[in-house]
Each structure stands twice: as C-alpha cells, then as structure tokens.
Amino acid sequence: MSPAIAVIVTWILMTGWTMLLGSWAGVLAGRSVGLFAGLRTSMWAGLAVLIAMVVGANFFMPLMGTSAILIALAVTVIAGAGGAWAWARGRLLPRVDVGDRVRRSWVLVPIIAMALMLALFAHWFAGPPTNYDSGLYHLNAIQFAAEYRTIPGLANLQDRLGTNISSLNLAAFMGNSAWGIEAFRLLTGFFAFVFATDTALRLLDRRTAGLRSPGLTIMLLATMLAWPFLLTSPNLWLTSPTPDTVALLLTIVAGAYLVDAFSPGDGRTVWAALALVTAAITATVRTQLWVLVFLTAAALLARWWIDRRAGREARGRIQPLTWAAGVVASVLFVVMMVRDALLSGWLLFPASLLALPVGWRVPDTTDTRLWMLSWAREPTGDPAKVLADWAWFRPWLGRALDDWAVRGALGMLALFVVVVLVSRMSDDSEAPSTDSRCLGLPSRLAWLLVLVPAVGTVIVWFWAAPDPRFAWGAIVLLGLVPVSLALFTLASRLQGGSFADLVPAIVAGFMCAAIVPPAVAGIVQIKGFIEDGYEVRTVSFGPIDVTGAVIPVTTPDVYEFRLDGGRTVVVPRDSDQCWMSFPLCRPYPDPTLQFMGPDLVDGLSSSRLNALLH
User: Fold this and answer.
1) How many CA atoms lie within 13 A of 308 on its CB side?
2) First-to-last CA distance in the chain?
3) Would you say residue 165 has pLDDT above 80?
C-alpha cells in the first residue's frame, strides 16, 4: 500500500470514529435537518468528545499505552450506546419537512478537486517538519503527553510548554496507531480532511436549504483562499503539527455555522449548537480564541432573546441539542483550565491575569507575554524599544498587508462591495414575496451580530500579539461573512430566487480553479525514488506493510547543564530548538529549575517563585 493511501485511510478511520463518538448528537439533529447534516453534527460533536477525552485522560495517564486505549474504548462504547438510545427515542421526535430536493451532478467536481488536494496533503506527511515552533516546543509537548501524565509545572522546564494546545494531545494519542510517535505528521492533514468532509457533506445534501446555505459559500471561499497557501510551504503548515493551520480551519467552520444559525431555513438551532461547539474546539487549540467562544455565545443569546421578544416561540425555544452544546463547550473549557493550572499554575497562560497558589507556578509570566507581544509587532526588534511607542505600527502594517489572510479578506470585502451594488440594481418590484431578511431581523442588525465574534477576536488579537497567523481564521471571516450574506441577499432578490442555486455552483467553480492547478502540479511532480536525506520506514497495519521514505526530524547538538540541586538537563548548543531531544531539554540554561520529587511526574518548580513569595 502507498504511504499516502495509508495516511488517507487513517484520516477516514479517524473521521468515522469521531462520527461514532458524536452519533447521539447526529441522531438528534438528523430528525430535523436530514442525514448529511446529521453526519456533520456527529462529526463535530464527536471531535469535541475526543478532545475532552485526550485532555482529561492525560491528567491521570500517558496517552500512548494500554490504559489510554481502554479509556478510548470505554468512551466509544458509551457514546455508541448514547447514539443507539437517541435513535430508539427518535420516533417520539417530530419529523420536520426538509424542503425541496434538487438534482445536481456538478457537486462531484469540487469534491474531486478537494480529494486531489487531500491526496497531495497526504503525500507531504513524509516531508521535514520545519515549523520553528515545532522544534521549539510542539514536538516535546507531544512527547510529554504521549509518555507522561500531565506534569505539574512543566512550563518551568520551557515556558512555551505551558501553552495549552489540545491538538498536540490528539497527536500524542494518535501515536497508539501503527504510525507511532511520528503520527504528528498526520495531525494538520486530519483537520484539513475533516474540514473537507464537512464541505463535501454540505454539497451532497440534496435539500434546497442545504445548497443555498451561506455557510457553504464560506467553506468554499475559504478553501479557495487557504488551501493553495498551505501548499506554498507544506513543511511549515502541513507536515509540522502547527496549531496555526488547525485554528485557521476550525475558526472558519465556527464562522460558517454561526452564519447558518442566522439564516432562513430548517435547522437553525442545530447550526447554533454546532457554532458553539466548533468555536469551543477552536479555543482548545489557541487560548486567545476563547473570546471567539464567548462572543459566539453572546450573539446566539441575542438571537434567542430577540426571538422571544418577538413572540417567535418555535424559534425562541431552547432545544435539547442546544443544551447539549452548552454542556460540551463548558466541559471543554473546564478541562482546558484544569490543564492550564497543572502546566503553569496560571489560567489562560501566558496572560498575567489569574495566578494560582500552587508550588509549581511559573513565577512571572510578564516576560513571556511581553516578549510574544514585541515579537508579533516586530520580530527582530528590541522589546524595550518596540513596546515603548507606536513606531512599530507602520512597518507592522506593511508586513500584515502582505499576509495571505489579510489580502484575502480585503479581496472578499471588495467583492462584497460589488455584490451590494449589483443587489441595489435589482428591481424590488420583481423580488420574491418571501422575506429575505435573516430570521425577520433587519439585515444590518443580523450582519452585525454574526460579525461580532470575528471583529472582537481581531481586536483582542491586535492588542495581545498581532502576528496575522495567530488570527488567520478571524481575519478571513471579516471578508467571507459579508460576501456570503451579500450573495445570499442578492440571490433572494432575483426573480423567484432561481439564482440561489447558482451561487454555490459559481463559487465552487472558482474554488476548483484555485486548487486544481497546484494539486495536479504537485501530484505530477511526486518522485518515485528516494533522494538524499530520506529514510525508508516500514509501518505494519496488521497483515499490510506500508513502506515509504520520510525525512527525519532534525537532531540538535546538545550539552548537559547541571542544576543547583544536582540534576542535569540538556541544552541545544547552536539554537533554542530541542526538536526530538527528550525529555529534559530546555532552550537555554537556567539554574533555578527545581524538581518537586524523585520522579519527573512529581512536578517542576522554580526557586524564583520562593524568592518572589518571600
């Protein structure tokens, strides 16, 4: 079997597993929104359950080993039983008319285009992981989660190990597969596969309402913008287990479901639940995106409150799936905050906000936070000078405007202006009698509410650490949301709404034009021989052996450094990147590091904390 095929099969099995884990939610949703939307609901609810499991289980055990596998089996059985119970009780739920069905074969073209791109993504698992932060701390974080339970005060070994990223725990758990610890190479591609699966299920949904979903337009446009960019440096954004790519994809999904929750059609409560759940999953990958969760919840509550005030009881009633989404989001928040407390002794690390009275606490996060802020504003600048005034702003603006996400958002806003002007040219007397406003709200108010999460996230990002990659998803949504709503409004204004079916087809055509050329070119250029620097690896999946060549992870030259207590750690000689040097590797010598017991799992602390407290 080809290694790339084995990678794709792994992604398919992982996606199917998440659907099983979320089957209870899919059954509840499927009664009102149909099979394909029910599968989407299962997938995202299951991914939330999976994230909660790998983070929560790591409090007590390493994620590679028999114990973790048994926990996963138990959770799977419970989730499957929940799905069976929901299916059995489903006969008591009312069946909702899912609307007109439409015939179309063109959807196969964008699905095939995404499949080609995913095949190329799968091929890049063999490339060298070159993302700087992967060498700095991503790989070590994965190794710690794989081989140890969550270690109190791990951030004292390396402050970036206090960064709480759930996807790295998922990569550690994936090490239970035949891929072993190098399953991290499949991580970002897995999230791209899930993203594509959501988009494909939207396209395959034969309901008119599903075809005309503004969220589908957002997903197609995001694929058009982001996927070619990922291939410009695949070793950075695909092979490396970077949260930048994962957070980008998840943020787009959360924004798409939020827009759907404000749009006419069946299943608004389902889309609202998915908007909240996917936003919460996103925040577990990048801490500052919890603001996206809170603002998404606020927008949905405002929608519900307005419905109640307007007397729309059917729309204003909170459904069981909505309650379940709130519970799932809350569980994710709690487990991530507990992990924050264990890793660093702070909540929302490295923000200098909530210090906990524990002996393993990082003494002070101010230096880390200010260094990140300075680096995001001017990577090579002196923090003392960068943070002193606004001289950094103009050079930063020039760099930001050259970023693909910023340019994409500006391009979408330009398209939005064109669509709005065309929409105003339409003859109102020929508009259909149906209300084209979002759920009866004035369009401007509806658009304001759906934009609040993205706008608020970008504002917080600008003041916290304005490197565009930290907010790619929110930045792109600033352009994608207005365009999708404008196209939806234009389609509703045209005679009989017949243009509505053409909107996703046209957008899908542009998406294919953007991603097919790099996909085909990349596949054609794949070489069938082994070059210098590659190593031949054999992975056994039962009776099937997969042999392929990969470029191994860099091995840095390290030296030993003795701590004040007599224990030793290793330090890279020529850089601050440990790569796969594990476990006691730190980027620079620091004699204040202390062990809290004879074993590493007992925790790490710093003598500077004692000096600070006394």
Assistant:
1) 8
2) 62
3) yes
Kindly state the tokens that stand for 396.
């930063």
Tokens (6 digits) for 398: 């020039």
Across the range 5-25, mean pLDDT stands at: 95
Which token pair is 467? 């490197």
Contact 176, 68 (CB under 8 A): yes
Q: Does the model's pTM come out above 0.90? A: yes
Peptide bond into 350 cis (omega under 30): yes
Question: Model confidence over 438-484: pLDDT tens digits?
Answer: 444 446 777 788 999 999 999 999 999 999 999 999 999 999 999 99
DSSP H or E run through 194:
helix 187-204
Q: How many CB atoms lie within 10 A of CB 381?
A: 16
Between CA 481 and CA 477 the distance in angstroms is 6
CB atoms closer than 10 angstroms to residue 208:
17
Tokens of 72: 């996963």
Closest among 437, 13, 41 to 210, alpha carbons compared: 41
Domain boundaries, the chain: 3-364+403-524, 558-613
At residue 559, φ and ψ (nearest 5 deg) are -135, 160
Which residues have a Cβ under 8 Å from the Cβ of 23 and sit 6 or more positions away? 42, 46, 79, 80, 82, 83, 84, 86
Residue 20 in tokens: 């099983």
